[in-house]
Design the sequence.
């Protein structure tokens, strides 16, 4: 059994060594090794993991694969952690294999892939490691990209309910420049998804146009869906319009969306949400099911490196039982090497049918400046969350509650050493400040070699999007100590 | 076990033999026109910076790139957006609102990013005019641009400013030399005449 990796290594060497004699072979890859100690009591408090991946490029030919020795990624939801951290879930396998060949405008690809048709309404297969999302497909793709763009693919992907069953997705996309200022495109995607004991056939047709006139950029995309199964056929439709205009230092733009029965079961799409915070209409349903909305924004370049951005969006469903509004106001000032951003954020969601209401508002700031010996970034936000929930005293009564989520962070980079110290809390009210939960966390990053970073995190973090030590990512809730060694070659 | 160690050693040696060059690519710019690697090479050093609209440190790096472009006229800055297709309009508007003079490319399916092991923006590469990757850096904090400048100077064969390695004194040194040569044009002028730069260069010290 252990001969398999040995054979793979020999094959790899056989491939690499002859290539080394050539002019420009490229071998790149990463190795991520980690040790984690979690203070949360469960079956697996301490463990190691390692992932190694490489890609080989030579004269248009590419090949790559990844070896994963460890647990599945942390889920972002705390409630899923216990199950995911079962020692039986440890993976030890070569995965994510691909090979491709490019010759001028033509390319063929086989294996795991990411792909987009248009803006992602009709088809998008992608991975977002920060959000722990993996909607990549495995299959074949042919593409031509020169006078016009054409691509066609035939692929499989794990069924959402039974991961040992492969569903099918296939389609083609064509984009043609009609004039210098106008581009037209069209897409077709067919999907076969196993649902119960029968397959559901989805056929989607899309068309799009983009007009670019220097000061103005307009785009329109529409699609229709014929979703067939034993019970019959359901029609769906999607429309997304967007535009922007630049008038000297002032830019303004807008967008309109309409999605009706356009939510794929397999998630192989990425619908534009037409609001600043990329929020869905309601947390209880996907965007494609029933959603309409508009967005309007402006961006004004003031004097002395000052910039003002305003953004407002609303969304609703057909019956107007679900509604949401989203607003953002940001002021940025770049003075020499000092950058200051002050912003106000607002997201409100209402669901009349379930008596749900939630509003989040938060002012935030970020100041970034260099000192004589260090680079400094200070940031913070003060989130106020208000919502309606079922009363714990009266079974059918609803009550309004609120809490605060303050967060402060300081990042320091001294030569090659980067430090980030953050403190986050959850206050029920101002009188409970001293008795509230606090999440202090420290991350230290140091490049011990060229292309090799050592990262140490100690403390607690509530999870979500964090930007620290110059990099932004989404993190899962965590408490404990994590030591990681990231190598790139 | 010995077999594994031997094989791993051989792989490491083989990797060392391979060239560290920018891989070929073909990506659309903001107007949808394709840009190839050859289109950005040959003029001078190149900064290739992977960014995304949601990434604040990425945006903080952009004014520094502009400053470097002003100082070194042969420098080309290429921004590669990792934004999803649905977010590209916002990324384009941001670049337009700041009037940045960069080459902006879009790689939503990470075809180039994967070849360069880019997973989280910002991730910056500095290339020689021939396309060799001479420097790579992940993340951006204020002051990182001094490291970039030192690398660009090295590519151009210019003498290092003392402490231009990110320790924080490079800016002061630059300031002094700007005064020496007038109007802050020292680098542009000397790029046209490298030998003159080498002659005129004075050592920077912390006492400036």
Sequence:
């Amino acid at each position: 059994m252990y001969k398999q990796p040995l054979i793979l290594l020999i094959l790899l060497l056989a491939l690499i060594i002859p290539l080394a004699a050539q002019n420009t072979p490229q071998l790149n890859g990463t190795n991520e090794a980690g040790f984690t100690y979690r203070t949360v009591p469960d079956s697996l408090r301490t463990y190691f993991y390692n992932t190694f991946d490489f890609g080989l490029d030579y004269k248009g030919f590419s090949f790559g694969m990844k070896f994963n020795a460890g647990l599945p990624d942390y889920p972002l939801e705390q409630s899923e952690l216990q199950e995911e951290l079962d020692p039986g879930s440890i993976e030890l396998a070569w995965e994510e294999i691909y090979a491709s060949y490019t010759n001028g405008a033509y390319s063929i690809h086989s294996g795991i892939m990411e792909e987009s048709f248009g803006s992602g309404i009709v088809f998008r297969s992608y991975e977002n490691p920060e959000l722990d999302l993996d909607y990549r497909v495995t299959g074949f793709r042919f593409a031509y990209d020169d006078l016009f763009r054409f691509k066609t693919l035939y692929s499989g992907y794990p069924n959402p309910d039974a991961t040992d069953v492969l569903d099918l997705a296939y389609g083609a996309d064509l984009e043609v420049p009609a004039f210098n200022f106008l581009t037209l495109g069209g897409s077709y995607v067919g999907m076969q998804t196993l649902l119960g004991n029968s397959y559901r056939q989805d056929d989607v047709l899309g068309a799009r146009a983009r007009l670019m006139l220097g000061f103005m950029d307009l785009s329109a995309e529409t699609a229709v869906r014929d979703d067939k199964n034993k019970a019959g056929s359901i029609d769906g439709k999607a429309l997304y319009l967007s535009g922007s205009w630049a008038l000297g230092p002032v830019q303004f733009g807008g967008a309109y969306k309409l999605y009706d029965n356009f939510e794929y079961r397999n998630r192989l799409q990425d619908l534009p949400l037409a609001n600043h915070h990329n929020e869905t209409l309601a947390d209880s349903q996907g965007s494609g099911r029933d959603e309409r909305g508009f967005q309007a924004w402006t961006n004004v370049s003031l004097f002395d490196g000052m910039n003002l951005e305003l953004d407002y969006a609303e969304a609703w469903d057909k019956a107007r039982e679900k509604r949401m509004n989203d607003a953002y106001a940001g002021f940025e000032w770049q003075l020499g090497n000092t950058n200051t951003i002050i912003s106000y954020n607002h997201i409100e969601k209402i669901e009349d049918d379930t008596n749900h209401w939630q509003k989040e508002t938060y002012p935030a700031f970020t100041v970034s400046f260099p000192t004589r010996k260090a680079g400094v970034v200070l940031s913070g936000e003060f989130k106020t969350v208000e919502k309606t929930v079922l009363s714990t005293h009266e079974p059918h009564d609803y009550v309004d509650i609120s809490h605060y989520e303050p967060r402060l962070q300081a990042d320091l980079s001294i030569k090659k050493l980067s430090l980030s110290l953050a403190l986050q809390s959850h206050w029920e009210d101002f009188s409970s400040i001293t008795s509230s939960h606090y999440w202090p966390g420290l991350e230290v990053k140091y490049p011990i070699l060229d292309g090799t970073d050592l990262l140490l995190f100690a403390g607690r973090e509530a999870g979500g999007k964090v930007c620290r030590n110059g990099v932004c990512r989404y993190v899962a809730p965590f408490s404990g100590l994590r030591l990681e060694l990231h190598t790139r070659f | 076990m010995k077999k594994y160690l031997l094989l791993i050693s051989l792989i490491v040696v083989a990797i060392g033999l391979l060239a560290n060059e920018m891989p070929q690519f073909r990506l659309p710019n903001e107007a949808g026109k394709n840009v190839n690697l050859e289109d950005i090479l040959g003029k001078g050093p190149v900064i290739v910076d992977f960014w995304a609209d949601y990434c604040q440190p990425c945006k903080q790096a952009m004014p520094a790139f502009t400053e470097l472009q002003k100082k070194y006229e042969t420098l080309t800055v290429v921004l590669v957006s990792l934004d999803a297709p649905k977010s590209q309009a916002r990324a384009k508007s941001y670049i337009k609102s700041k009037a940045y003079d960069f080459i902006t490319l879009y790689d939503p399916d990470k075809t180039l990013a994967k070849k360069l092991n880019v997973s989280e923006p910002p991730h910056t590469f500095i290339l020689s005019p021939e396309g060799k990757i001479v420097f790579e850096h992940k993340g951006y904090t204020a002051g990182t641009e001094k490291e970039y400048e030192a690398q660009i100077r090295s590519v151009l064969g210019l003498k290092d400013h003392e402490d231009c390695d990110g320790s924080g004194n490079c800016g002061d040194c630059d300031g002094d030399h700007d005064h020496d040569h007038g109007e802050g044009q020292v680098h542009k002028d000397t790029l046209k005449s490298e030998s003159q730069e080498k002659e005129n260069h004075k050592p920077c010290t912390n006492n400036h």
Observations:
- Residues 3-20 of chain A form the longest helix (18 residues).
- Helices of chain A lie at 3-20, 78-84.
- Chain A touches chain B through 91 residues (CB under 8 Å).
- Chain A has a mean pLDDT of 85.
